[in-house]
Specification:
5-stranded antiparallel beta sheet, alpha/beta, 820 residues, single chain
Length: 820
């Protein structure tokens, strides 16, 4: 990309802000040197990295941790240099950061393919982290445990130091020598321990003088009896230094052995951190990913053939147009900047922007140019999602105002020199931006040159944006295919620009209206109007009316958009509520189905028991087979998929339910679905529990048929005779009401709990339950152990096992009961 253009469009400021989001120096260098690419594939890859990083940040907090640029340290280690402790700690923290990042991207190639590819290039630790941790503390101190020799040296050093301090302390505390000292302290000079002797007592203590105070009143002396001790300490300190250096050299050699991989890994880490920085910058700008439109390949070759056949026909359609929705200048405050829409008709190749000074023309030009450069650098742009940009091979700009970073040439010759340079380099995949094209000379000649340059750019198929004050260019844009007028609005009431860009309408000078508003005499205003062509005044009036109508339409559209957004939000909330209700309904049905399956299991066991009793009594099994067929039908219904039910509205059902509301416990009824008679043992709102022999079933009220009084009387007499007859030959197991599928023993002492469990098991066995849940809790495990000991070999228990995780796990024991 053109370096002058990058400066004029303030692109370096964008890179400076981007570098501020980087976490270490290597990625900062990449950020500051980032340039827009002229490769479509590379631009798309960069954008994909940014998009994946923003997606990653939306679900988890990721960073490069305490990584550093360790490439200089790796180079030094590779040349057999010795790294200092801080450099080794930097290597350690960097490798730990790389290890954590590789873990983050494990098995996530489907979600973050680009980032995972970069993460694959991060270095392995190769035991370097452990080697450094073994010899260095977190503060960079070589540990005693780094080597046996170092541990011995430091131990001897401590002993020698204590011995020396003890001998020097005698000089400080002895009454004969303490009075000769300036202070009762032990200090150091040139690495040797000394005491502060008053100058007047020089020679009274045989010692080596190492230093004196600035006043000369104090001499820092080393008594001769401790010279050897000081020498010993110094020798041990030198031995300690040499051993530490040997240890650091040994660890540095490990780093040097993998220097190439470490440097390559840091480069990949910098690329990854740059992707993270682009994502963070995009979040700050509230940016979105642009859609880059590529014009290379088949489309370009076909266009080339059309151009040969008809050169003028391809001027308009050679490249897709710019489409920016609510675009904002990235360097301006997002809270105050006015967004612009740049969405001309398809086939537009040039936009001519007119409007008042300081109205925002230059900012609009720079906004488009910067957003193109950002997109081709892999940055998300501050515009709404759905914005589209053609892919440009080059971008050129000639902006000569005071708003640029560098002071551009302000003379006509300076502008023309820059324009000539640009015209020599452009092709049909270039974007050219001109601010005040043709200015700085005679208006008539300047307008003619501007029209000629714009025509040349159109013939070359170049996408062009021009800001101008020349009315001739407005006319040119109106009458030329592929060129469109645009304007920035001005509020006559406040005499301030609105900075709103309108595509399709040329700008008005508003000079007469502004002069009149500021108080210029009306007579002068009228004289000025008389000098203007009436057709021009009428055109201005029409433009003003059109602008007002467009503004009114825009406001209405905004209202409708807000209402649409509100309706979408309400619909989303309703959908969530309905989904929640549906989940609750399915959960309720699933629970009911589980209960039904349990009852079917109980029914099967009771039928099996009844069949065995009938066989023993030599009775026919016809009735049992009918019940089995009904049971299979019920079981089939229980496995059917859940469907939405309609509210019952049958008058017959309601009438039947009202007739059965007066049912009483103990009353005999017929279960129509089973064609069997039984006794009502429990009543619900819409169903009842019926005891049919030893079988307990639940039936809907609509399935029950009440017996009339006479039939009940006859049945009671027949039943009495039958019981007398059977009493002498057969003894059946007494029936019992169900105690429920679980018993809770928590909070009871072991003896009380076992008594309660025994009573419960007997009742559960008599009622024909196939299994039960015994809740004893986890706690210390004593109650659980007592319960399971009691269940071993129990007369009613076939087997038992620990509850599943969704049943309570270790806190529950599930016992399967013997069949009756």
């Amino acid at each position: 990309m053109d370096s002058k253009t990058l400066n004029v469009l303030e692109y370096q400021k964008i890179l400076g802000k981007l570098a501020g989001f980087c976490d270490f120096s290597a990625s900062m260098e990449l950020a500051r040197s980032l340039e827009p690419t002229d490769s479509y594939d590379l631009a798309q890859a960069r954008l994909a990295e940014t998009t994946e990083a923003r997606k990653l940040f939306s679900v988890q907090d990721v960073s490069i941790g305490a990584a550093h640029d360790i490439r200089p340290a790796a180079d030094l280690a590779a040349r057999s240099g010795v790294l200092d402790p801080q450099a080794l700690l930097d290597v350690k923290s960097t490798l730990i950061a790389c290890r954590e990042l590789k873990k983050t991207f494990e098995k996530k190639e489907g979600e973050y393919p680009r980032l995972c590819l970069i993460a694959q290039g991060l270095p392995e630790t190769h035991g370097i982290v452990d080697a450094i941790s073994r010899v260095l503390s977190d503060r960079g101190e070589v540990l005693d445990s780094a080597s046996v020799k170092l541990a011995d040296i430091r131990r001897n050093l401590r002993v020698a130091h204590d011995r020396l301090m003890s001998r020097l302390q005698k000089y400080v505390t002895d009454s004969k020598t303490s009075s000769m000292l300036q202070e009762s302290i032990i200090t150091q000079r040139d690495g040797r321990y000394v005491i502060p002797l008053r100058a007047e007592y020089k020679g009274r203590i045989k010692a080596v003088i190492h230093d004196q105070s600035s006043s000369g009143a104090t001499l820092f002396v080393e008594p001769l009896p401790v010279v050897e001790a000081n020498n010993e300490i110094r020798e041990l300190q030198l031995a300690e230094r040499d051993e530490e250096r040997r240890i650091l050299a040994e660890v540095s050699s490990v780093v040097g052995a993998h220097a190439s991989e470490l440097k390559y890994g840091v480069e990949n880490l910098a690329v990854l951190d740059l992707a993270f920085a682009k994502a963070k910058y995009g979040e700050e700008l509230r940016a979105s990913e642009p859609e880059l439109q590529n014009t290379e390949g088949k489309g370009q070759r076909a266009e080339s053939r059309r151009q040969k056949a008809d050169p003028q026909s391809s001027i308009v359609n050679r490249q897709s147009s710019i489409k920016l929705i609510q675009a904002r200048h990235p360097l301006l405050d997002p809270e105050t900047v006015v967004p612009v829409d740049v969405d001309p008709a398809e086939g537009t190749r040039a936009i001519v922007i007119t409007g008042p000074n300081t109205g925002g023309k230059t900012v609009s030009l720079k906004t488009v140019g910067l957003l193109v450069l950002m997109a081709q650098s892999g940055l998300h742009i501050p515009a709404q999602s759905g914005s589209e940009l053609p892919f440009f091979k080059s971008v050129y700009a000639d902006i000569g105002d005071e708003q640029s970073i560098e002071q551009s040439l302000s003379t006509f010759s300076g502008h023309i020199t820059n324009i000539i340079r640009i015209l020599k380099q452009i092709d049909n995949r270039s974007l050219v931006i001109f601010d005040e094209l043709g200015s700085g000379t005679d208006p008539q000649e300047g307008a003619a040159i501007a029209r000629a340059i714009l025509s040349h750019l159109l013939e070359a198929g170049v996408m062009t944006l021009v800001a101008t004050h020349y009315p001739e260019l407005k006319t040119f844009a109106h009458s030329t295919e592929g060129v469109v007028n645009a304007s920035l609005e001005f509020d006559i009431k406040t005499l301030r620009p609105t900075y709103k860009l309108t595509i399709g309408l040329p700008g008005r000078s508003n000079a007469l209206a502004i002069a009149q508003k500021l108080g210029l005499p009306q007579s002068i205003i009228e004289s000025a109007k008389a000098e203007i062509n009436p057709l021009d005044l009428r055109a201005d009036k029409l433009l003003d009316d059109i602008r007002k109508e467009r503004n009114r339409t825009s406001r209405e559209r905004e209202k409708l958009e807000k209402q649409r957004s509100k309706l979408e939000t309400q619909n989303a909330e309703l959908a969530k509520r309905l989904e929640k209700i549906e989940d609750e309904r399915r959960e309720t049905i699933a629970k009911a189905r589980a209960e039904g399956e349990l009852e079917v299991a109980v029914l099967k066991r009771n039928i099996d028991s009844l069949k065995s009793q009938l066989k023993k009594a030599s009775q026919p099994l016809t009735a049992i087979r009918a019940i089995e067929e009904k049971m299979e039908t019920i079981e089939g219904k229980a496995t059917q998929p859940v469907e939405r039910k309609q509210d019952p509205s049958s008058r017959t059902s309601q009438s039947l339910l009202s007739n059965l509301q007066s049912l009483k416990l103990g009353e005999k009824v017929t279960v129509s679905t089973l064609n069997a008679e039984g006794v009502v043992t429990a009543l619900g709102e819409s169903d009842a529990e019926v005891q049919i022999g030893t079988i307990r079933v639940r039936a809907k009220m609509s399935e029950l048929v009440r017996r009339n009084a006479e039939a009940v009387s006859n049945e009671q007499k027949a039943e009495g005779r039958k019981q007398k007859a059977e009493a002498s030959s057969t003894v059946n197991r007494p029936s019992s009401s169900s105690p429920g599928m679980e018993v809770d023993l928590r909070g009871l002492m072991s003896e009380d709990a076992l008594d309660k469990m025994e009573r419960y098991l007997e009742q559960a066995y008599l009622s024909g339950l196939p299994w039960v849940r015994i809740i004893h809790g986890k706690g210390t495990g004593k109650l659980r152990q007592s319960v399971r000991e009691a269940l071993k070999g129990h007369a009613y228990v076939k087997s038992f096992e620990e509850g599943a995780s969704n049943e309570g796990g270790e806190g529950v024991t599930v016992a399967k009961l013997n069949a009756g």
